[in-house]
Prior knowledge:
single chain; 518 residues; alpha/beta; Rossmann fold; 3 domains; seven-stranded mixed beta sheet; six-stranded parallel beta sheet; 21 helices; 18 strands
Amino acid sequence: MNGAQALIRTLVDSGVDVCFMNPGTSEMHFVAALDDVPEMHGVLALFEGVATGAADGYARMADRPAGVLLHLGPGLGNGLANLHNARKGHVGVVNVVGDHATYHKQYDAQLESDIETVARNVSTWIRTSNDVATVAADAAEAVAVAAGPPAQVATLILPADTSWTEGAEPAAPAPAATPTPPDPDEVARIAAILTGDEPAALFLGGRACRADALVDASRIANATGTKLMAETFPTRIERGAGRVNVDRLGYLAEFAALQLDGLRHLVLVDSKSPVSFFAYPGKASDLVPEGCTVHVLADTAGDPAAALAALAEAVGADPDGATLQRAERPDLPTGPLTAEGVCRAVGALMPEGTIISDEGNTSGLFAPGLTAGAPAHDWLCLTGGAIGQGLPVALGAAVACPDRQVIALQADGSAMYTLQSWWTMAREGLDVVTIIFNNSSYAVLNMELSRVGADAGGEKAKAMLDLTGPDLDFVALATGMGLRATRATTGEELSEQLQAALDADGPSVIEAIVPSIL
């Protein structure tokens, strides 16, 4: 058994049986070893950013890490943006980066680079496996680190000669980390605060946004009068009819400040203290109100579900005291198509168990409200703000949950970053419906141009945020990669096309022509 065979066998035995990849010469022994370990499902991506984003989406829905195989430092660099999103979302990824053979690095060949320095931007664990005798153990440790808690990106650098050298043996899975249990004294202290007279809020993120944890959070809020809110872009939030509906903190700092205004206590549950996404002239970066104390009930290494359950008991919350969302759907849209009309159709037609990958950006602002009462579903957000996440995350989620419908709400400009995702969806036969909000603009940047105080009047500046000349034809782009694709300009067309796409097997694209909402 060579190093690559032992590595893949160890990954599979440790629970990583899907690897999204864009390999090159240095990774050919890893590719060849896929036939020796048939349990490993290799998924080819035409761009590294698709592979890394798909691993993120897979891990969010599978609750275990996926693997990624990338080619040397430039390949890692191409995949960095979506590894950044995974890092910010505390998502587990085992990132295998091929390297030159150990004896070849001294010659500074064209693709030679400092891989560790590139990986350090997104990885909390980095290991170069220079010895075939230890590569399998290194892989087992990478899986354990990636799985967490906290889940994270672990990068294993694999020299080509480590892959092809014989004499390797698989390693047993490394021991998994156990979440830090809630501290009874801290639970009691926070319970006393929430049952006191000062305004307080629970601020939820990460694993605290799962359905059972949200039930306990709602019980606490109703028993104590505590405000309940979630991060702006949760990694995965379970919502819909029969579940707890939670308001998310606003993206715009001004709106977020209004939501937090007057609080004297902010209790973090698998979340970080809120800050503004960007610096704006004359506006605060730290969104915690003056005079408000921040408390941590459960951090990223903790057990937020257990902590919320303990806190619910400590405040004497009614076991049936959660407020659950009632079932309701919006009417189907009619007339000229708008961004709101698209979101209305999604809320009216999406089936139970749908997974939404949301990179609708400005056009998707209506989606959370219009889908709140739809059948129970999962919502995956743009965790790190690096655009180009939506399509790869939808791809990975569909691989993790082949029996569930996936809908990608996708802005037009962001789609062009990782459009190659469509080719892999078609190749894998994945049940993903992509709705492109085509308003021919980087609309969010038009908004930010004025918010940061820049002069928005110049034609050269406006041209840098405009997606016309030539116009993007997403129907042609999608059909060119093997997907069914249609274009909608009215509410009636959009509703009919969406229902047809949901009824069909395999991937579909609907190009929704909408005006900008800004």
